[in-house]
Design a protein that fits this description.
Helix content: over 70%
Radius of gyration: 36 Å
Amino acid sequence: MATNVTGGYAPLDEVAFARAGRRVSWGAIFAGVVLAMAVQLLLGILGTGIGLSMVDPVEGTTPGATGFGIGAGLYWLITTVVALGAGGYAAARLSGVTDRFDALVHGLVVWGVTLLLTLYLLTSAVGGLIGGAFRTVGAVAGAAGTTVGAAAPKVAQIAGIDGGDVRDEASAYLADAPSDPAQMTPEQAQKEIAKQLPALARGGSAGARAESRIVEIVAAQRKVSRAEAQAQVTRAKQDFVAAKNDAVQTARSAADAAAGAAAGTSFILVLALLAGAGAAAFGATTATRRRPR
């Protein structure tokens, strides 16, 4: 007895049962990630164009750095929500899940994969280029230094010159200033004072000798008494210390402001990531198909 088989669609219950065996569809997740990153890239390029159109150095209507940064942050937050919402919706829709929890998982996985992939691209592509450039420069500089350091003794040896003679000759070139401050030119006096400043900054007995030498040079160059020169050097030291303290305080204030800005940026980034996760989950649960009766 022959049996006729007619083609047709499987019952909805059988389709639902077949899909129930796999609650996670990685193909749908991959499609959602691709869509999310494409939307993010498209909106990012659009935002870059909008931002550049607002820059007008000729008319002087360029927005300030603070307002520009706030606007860019808000735009990035909006684009993240839109992109991940679209990605989560696409993943849940393509997976064909009928359970809201399964759809929620698909949306969150899209968010997680997108986040990890973005972090990987930033650290491997951009960071790799920058780090590679610096490593290349460092390697070239190190190789050049090694080559020069290795070649110098050989050249001196071939010429029959001792290393000590080379150092003595170099010192002779540098020590061209007369020991008597009264016989120094203004340029020689400035070089000698600059030479004594490191020891003066270190203090101690070497600092006292350096200060005495500077006082002698100032008295001879300005043709004043040693007491007046000492007073001038003391005032200069006080001004230097005050300037150094101001620089240290400014650096501390800048570091504190930078730390506060970094902390604020971190909190904003966390909120943006949570908003992206919520958008992906919302988009996925919205795409949940009704369970067939």
